[in-house]
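User: quick one, sequence for these tokens?
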């Protein structure tokens, strides 16, 4: 895959993770790490969003040099 495609995917992924999937994960069961599934999903999104931003930033920095 090209770097541009990776950047586009990593840019769209947090939006899909947080907004697009909410109707599908809006349920109480299963309980994961003591959290309802929706809370776990949102927590996972809070972890993955900065990771996506980090990868995008370092991909762009390497492209400039």
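Assistant:
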């Amino acid at each position: 895959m090209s770097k541009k495609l990776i950047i586009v995917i990593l840019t769209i992924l947090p939006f899909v993770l947080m907004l697009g999937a909410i109707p599908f994960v809006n349920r109480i069961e299963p309980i994961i790490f003591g959290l309802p599934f929706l809370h776990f999903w949102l927590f996972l999104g809070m972890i993955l969003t900065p990771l996506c931003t980090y990868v995008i930033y370092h991909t762009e920095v390497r492209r400039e040099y």
